[in-house]
């Protein structure tokens, strides 16, 4: 048990960070385990509301994942994946959009409101927030040739118009954004939520980008659970990729961080969404809990 003075010390530790980030925008990519486990969900959204009430401006960009797969199954549609990308025909996109911008988005909004924040749900299609073009995806055939694969309505964000998010922030709301984008002819695209969060952070001149994942962070030695890299400089990243310490699904996440930093975001954080209150622990303590990637 911590004594009263220890508890007070922990609260006081937060003061410099409350000062530093007061009025600043923090974009949080919310996904993975923290979205499907109720206790974790409550903890994440409580952290977000707390941030808001100490004067920080959190913005959530959420993923979809298992709920989309579940709904597609219920209606008898199974997805094919190419390199981890869901092949999205028109009917699939309709369901993806309904689940992402409808169900998932509004559930998060309602839960924040219940905790005591004021959230508003937005789709990337609202006020042209995320504009996209069809993703051109190259695959390698078994014979080793490069070929274009048609993966349907999967988009690359071509433009971000953050005005509606900025307006919501200025009015005191916590914006909750679904990673759906609009094409030139008004069609919908499914876009990667990490990437959407990174692009939105740049467009909003955010100070921080926080990506919740299902790993502790970046490890110097994967067989050693105590080897978490707490602070990583951008110029150290290429070597870690070469050494295979950053690989697989972590590479695009780190690339999002690098893009955000190149676009002016001051710090990016890869956090373990499986740990309760990882956001508070990262933002309001000196040591943090995950990997902070900085210039
Ligand atoms: N709380 C500070 C911040 O959010 C420091 C975080 C340090 N984090 C880390 N993983 N070393 O900027």
TrEMBL record:
The record marks 29, 253 as: Transition state stabilizer. Residues 24-272 form the Aspartate/glutamate/uridylate kinase domain. Substrate binds at residues 64-65, 86, 190. Gene3D superfamilies: Acetylglutamate kinase-like (3.40.1160.10). GO terms for molecular function: acetylglutamate kinase activity; ATP binding. It comes from the Bacteria. GO terms for cellular component: cytoplasm. The keyword NAD does not apply. The keyword Amino-acid biosynthesis applies. Its main location: cytoplasm. Keywords: Amino-acid biosynthesis, Arginine biosynthesis, ATP-binding, Cytoplasm, Kinase, Nucleotide-binding, Transferase. It is found in: Cytoplasm. It catalyses: N-acetyl-L-glutamate + ATP = N-acetyl-L-glutamyl 5-phosphate + ADP. Its EC number is 2.7.2.8. One of its GO terms (biological process) is L-arginine biosynthetic process via ornithine. Pathway: Amino-acid biosynthesis; L-arginine biosynthesis; N(2)-acetyl-L-ornithine from L-glutamate: step 2/4. InterPro entries: AceGlu_kinase-like_sf, AcgluKinase_fam, ArgB, Asp/Glu/Uridylate_kinase, NAGK-C. Belongs to the acetylglutamate kinase family. ArgB subfamily. NCBIfam families: argB (TIGR00761). Catalyzes the ATP-dependent phosphorylation of N-acetyl-L-glutamate. This is Acetylglutamate kinase. It comes from Pelotomaculum isophthalicicum JI. The gene is argB.
